[in-house]
Amino acid sequence: MKFEGIYTPVITPYRDDGSIDRDAFAKIIEYLVASGVHGIINGGSTGEYYAQSMEERVEMAKLAKDVIGERIPLIIGTGAIRLPDSIHMAETAAKIGASAILVGSPPYAVPTERENALNALAIDRSADLPIMLYNYPGRMGIHMGEEFLDRVGRSRNFCAIKESSGDINRVHLLARDYPHIHMSCGMDDQALEFFAWGARSWVCGGSNFLPEEHIALYRACVVEGNFTKGRRIMSAMMPLMRVLEQGGKFIQCIKYGCEMAGLFAGSPRPPLKPLNKDDVRQLEQVVRVLKRTIAEIQAEA
Question: What is the model's pLDDT at position 256?
C-alpha cells in the first residue's frame, strides 16, 4: 500500500452525558470524504481511543468502515497497553476489510527495542495488513530506534511510519537509511521539512476541520513540487500549529475547530475539559486569518 496525501485521524463526537454520537461521527466522515482527504484513521489519539472501552473501539471501527465503504482507505489504530487488546483491534481491522493498521509502542511499559519489535510483529501476524508505525515518544516514553526498525523490517507489512518525535534528525535518518518505509509527517509544524525530505503523506489532526487547507500544502509540495508556494501556505498555518500545541489542548482545539466548521464534536472525555473563552477567541481569530490567507494564495495560482 502506498501512503500518499492527507490522512485524517478522525475525532469521536461525545454528547453531554459522555456517550458517543454515532450520527455525528458519520457526518464528520462524510464531510472529510467530500473534502478530498486521502484516507481516514480511526482509533488514534485524536479520536481519544485511550478513553474508550474495547467494545466502543470495535464498534467505531466497524461504523467507520460502513460509512466509508471503499471510497478511501481506512486505517484502524491498535494502540493499547496490553498486547491482547492490540491484537484484538488488528483482528477487527482485518475482519471488517480495513486498508491498514496503525501500530504504536505500548505506553507506560517502556519495553526495549527488541521487546517493542516483538510486540509489533505479534500484532502484524494477527492481521497480515499493511502497517503504518507510529513513533510518538512524547506519549509512549520510547523511540522506535534503528534496532526496532531493522527487526520489524523483516516483515513486508511494515511499509510506513508516522513520525511524531519532533526530532528533525529522525526525518534525515528515515529518509536516508529506511527509504523502503514510507515516511509520513506526524509533527504538524515540520510538515514542510517532511515533504522536502521526500514524505508523501501527512497525518494531521487539523484536517478534521481544515481539510482543504491541509490538502493545499500537500498539493503544493508533493504534487506540484512548488516549495515557494508551500512555504507561503506553511507560514500561514504556523499560528494554528502553535495554538494546537500550546498548553496540552490539542484535542480540545481540534474538537472546537469541528464545531466552527458546523460539525458536532462535543467535549472530550475526562480527564480533558473543553476550551475556555480565551482559548476559543484565540482559535477563532487564527482560523479566520489562516483561511483567508490560504484562499488568497490559492487564488493567485
Answer: 98
Domain limits at 180?
A: 5-224
Does residue 227 have a pLDDT over 80? yes
Does residue 294 belong to any structural domain of this protein?
A: no
On whether residue 78 sits in a domain, the answer given is yes
Question: Measuring CA to CA, which residue among 125, 126, 77, 127 is closest to residue 105?
Answer: 77
The answer to whether the beta carbons of residues 28 and 11 sit under 8 Å apart is yes
- pLDDT at 102 exceeding the cut of 90: yes
Domains: count for the chain: 1
Residue 162 annotated in active site: yes
| Annotation marks residue 134 as catalytic | yes
Q: What is the CATH number of the domain that holds 210?
A: 3.20.20.70
Q: The pTM is what?
A: 0.96
Options 7, 31, 49, 134, the catalytic residue: 134
Dihedral pair phi/psi, residue 186, rounded to 5°: -125, 15
